Amino acid sequence: MTADFLRAVRLVVFGATLLPLVTTLCSAWLLPGPAHQVRMRELLAHLVLIAAVNAAVAVVLARGAAWLEEWARGQAAFLDSLPDRQVDVAIAASAAASLFLELAVIRWQGSVFELFALYKNLGLLACFAGLGLGYALAGRDRLPLFATLPLLAGQMLLLVTLRHGLPGAVIETNGYSWRVQSLLATPFPEQRNIGFATAQSAGQFVAAYAFLSVLFVLTALAFLPVGQLCGRLMTRRRELHAYSLNLAGSLAGVLLLLLASALWTPPLVWFAPLFAVLLAFQAFDHRVLLAGTVAALLAAVVLAWPVSVQWERIYSPYQVIEHGPGEHGLTVIRAAGHYYQKVHDLSVQAQAASDDRRRVGFYYELPYRVHGTPGRVAILGAGTGNDVAAALRSGAEHVDAIEIDPVILRLGTLYHPERPYDDPRVQRIVNDARTYLRTTPETYDLIVYGLLDSHTLLSHASSVRLESFVYTVEGLREARARLKDDGILSLSFAVVSKEIGRKIYLMMTEAFDGRPPLCLRGAYDGSVIFLQRKNGGLTLPPSLTLNRREGFWAMERFEDASVRADVSTDDWPFLYMATRVYPRSYLFMGLVVIGLAALLLWNFTGERPAFSHGVFFFLGAAFMLLETKAITELGLTFGNTWHVIGISIAGILAMAFLATAVVSRWRLRGIVLPFVLLLASLGAGWWVSRAGGFAPTAAGKLGAVALLSLPIFFSGILFARFLDEGAGIAGAMAVNLMGAMVGGLLEYNAMYFGFRFLYGLAAALYGCAFLLAARGRARLAAR
Q1: Is 312 helix (H, G, I), strand (E, B) or coil?
Q2: What is the crossing angle of helices 729-746 and 698-724, to 10°?
């Protein structure tokens, strides 16, 4: 296996060294002109770097091949020689490190390149591919765990260098060198993104897919030895016992990441214990340990490197938040690498001294000028406090400031010059806006939606963004229900296209019983303010002057029925998709992922990877869809906050553990009843979802947990039952993870059919598993 693995490493190293040249050429193609032309000396420098790095790697791998082969064999022998009393701990530790590493890598990738913050599923699929292939190769007599840390360090160095340039390099625009402009556009045109362009030129697509392909293979190769490690250890125990230990360790990994998120820790803190665990498994040889330590130290330096002395980076539970100096010495916030918001001094004195500040102040104060002096105000997405300060300047008696990210709220408390969060009239609430609206008994004179655009997804297993359920027809109806009889709802949004503007217009119209909102266009951050009174009859007061001098305001029209738009609902919460179109670009990316995974598998066919029965494939694909459904629906019921999502993942693992314990304790026989109960629970979940889901009451939350847990439990029963029939644990895990990878790709169907469709899709996959299992049993009975 070592030769096959090293061949794959050499190919991905060549791709990684070629990637900077590809992005440079594509950026020059994208931005032609004297300032962006690639000079011959730059081209030669790229070629020299490619040749030098690849020659060095070739020499090291050729001259050190015997050592690497010895290390790989020694690693496998070391695991086989572990005393029995240590094997259980080793299985749990390797599983914990595996899942923690998976989540940490996915999160870190999103903190460096925002493409991965919006499409975390890509990193997840790479991890599944690597782990699955590693489990399939667990029985081989060579295990190249020594390669994981160097590959992780190399990936980190590559991404940070692409993102920030080499130390001392000049960064021309918005924190980026022009040489990566081709990577600043998403290759998925079905969705719009605020502040993030969509690829249109051939250069952008070439650069994006080259980038994603290299990162996929790099990540998969780094995780392959980890899968081998887990699989080889698990083969030393009975199948159900080994699987239980794997689930217990995975649960511990999730809880550790929850702790790291709660403490706002940086990536170095996430990866340090992971590096320690991997090094502990390599302590059998001082040379292997030394090589791993050097790679870990390199990774630590890259993770801790101060990419900018002017910007402080804080890792909130959701994403990386950067704050630095802006105009007039005030703070600017970036989220996931993109501009997020500015802190403004819009006090009466500041507005009187500056026309620009007066125009910005007019934007923030407009809802209050329309309403008059409000009593109680709720601000959804309060951010650093600009909207809160406007409410206080306008005479609000009480302000509930709801902000999901505690880091952003903290920065506003520390750095906003008007100190709005210190005012006794303000109550700070760290929560998801939708959940707050569903659960609060308060009613308001004015509900103000700030510019909610999270720049990140709800979880690694879903295409839903943090704010997606805030902008649905059901969410707007719940906001309307929290208004007093003469209350006004003000929704500001950076409208990036006519289609998105019409979409929000139609949602507001439907939520307010067919009455269209007033729509005002402003000059600040490209926003449109949609205004609606609870019981209708909203008009602008005569005293309100809207003209270019006051604030560049104009009435915006979205009545044009020729502009196609489909409203967002809780079943289809895709605000940034103007219409329901099948995500063909996602399908193409899925084919690329499958092709790369197939190439990796083909590379190792000489080692005869061991895969178990195909029933585990369908169980894995269906389980992935169940996990996505559970995360999204529990998030809607309990709140789309980081700890709810983390607890949901932990709960899924706990239910699988409980199912395994039940099978192990009572030795359940037969598969028909668990399949029937599984399909029945899926049907019940579909019916409840179609009826609008559970209410956010105590009984509703209990019902949601029960109904979403039952399919997980019965699925776990089936998985454990098939394991108990003698299926090899490593091969079963390999097939299951490959199925999970396909399930992750099938999840994209929700972008067209809606999330309820996943119930039917999961049921169909479980039906395939049942037919395959029944056929296998019939063959055995016929012998």
Answers
A1: strand
A2: 140
Contact 759, 682 (CB under 8 A): yes
In this structure, the strands spanning 444-449 and 483-494 are parallel
Distance CA 489, CA 518 (A): 11
Which residue type is seen at 668?
L
387 CA to centre of own chain: 28
Classify burial at 186, counting beta carbons within 10 Å of its beta carbon; exposed 0-12, middle 13-18, buried 19 or more.
buried
Q: For the chain, what percent of residues have pLDDT higher than 90?
A: 51
Cβ–Cβ under 8 Å, residues 576 and 546: no
Positive/negative CA dihedral, 212, 216, 217, 219: positive
Which of residues 31 and 672 earns the better pLDDT score? 672
Mean local confidence (pLDDT), 545-570:
77
Instruction: Encode 291-302: b = buried (16+ Cβ within 10 Å), e = exposed.
Output: bbeebbebbbeb
Q: Indicate the Cα dihedral angle 236, 242, 245, 246, nearest 10°.
A: 100
Q: What is the largest CA-CA distance in the chain?
A: 92
> Residue 172: is its pLDDT beyond 50?
no
Report, in this order, helix, strand and coil percent for the chain, each rounded to 5.
60, 10, 30
Mean pLDDT, residues 500-506: 93
Write the pLDDT tens digit of every residue in 710-761.
Answer: 999 999 999 998 888 877 899 999 999 999 999 999 999 999 999 999 999 9
Instruction: Record the tokens describing residue 245, joined without a space.
Output: 């230990």
Q: In angstroms, rounded to a whole number, what is the distance separating the alpha carbons of residues 348 and 345? A: 9
d(CA 634, CA 701): 8
- 339 against 445, higher pLDDT: 445
Strand partners, 521: 528, 554
Q: What is the mean pLDDT of the chain?
A: 87
Long-range Cβ contacts of 207-211 (<8 Å, 24+ apart): 207/22, 207/23, 207/26, 207/27, 207/182, 207/183, 208/115, 208/182, 208/183, 209/589, 209/592, 210/15, 210/18, 210/19, 210/22, 210/23, 211/19, 211/23, 211/115, 211/183
**Range 757-770 average pLDDT:** 94
Tens-place pLDDT, residues 320-344: 888 888 876 688 888 777 778 889 9
Between the CA of residue 499 and those of 493, 503, 507, 563, what are the distances in Å?
13, 6, 12, 6
Averaged pLDDT, 521-529: 79
Specify whether the CB–CB gap between 175 and 160 falls below 8 A: no
The total number of residues written for the chain in this structure? 783
User: Phi/psi of residue 465, each to 5°?
Assistant: -90, 165
The structure's pTM equals 0.91
CA atoms within 13 A on the CB side of 231: 35
Are 519 and 557 a contacting pair, CB within 8 Å? yes
- Residues whose CB is less than 8 angstroms from the CB of residue 54 and which lie 6 or more positions away in sequence, other chains included: 10, 13, 14, 17
Residue 637 has pLDDT above 70, yes or no: yes
The half-sphere exposure of 211 on its side-chain side, counting CA atoms within 13 A, is 29
Instruction: Grade residue 39 by pLDDT with cuts at 50, 70 and 90.
Output: low
460 pLDDT tier (thresholds 50, 70, 90): low
Measured from the Cβ of residue 230, the count of other Cβ atoms closer than 10 Å reads: 30
Closest CA to 305 of 164, 102, 170, 416: 164
- C-alpha of 430 from chain center: 20
| Residue 141: other Cβ atoms inside 10 A | 11
Separation of alpha carbons 737 and 729, rounded Å: 12
Token output for 561: 């029925």
Q: In this predicted structure, what is the pLDDT of residue 61? A: 84
Radius of gyration of the chain (CA): 27
Predicted confidence at residue 169, as pLDDT, reads 45
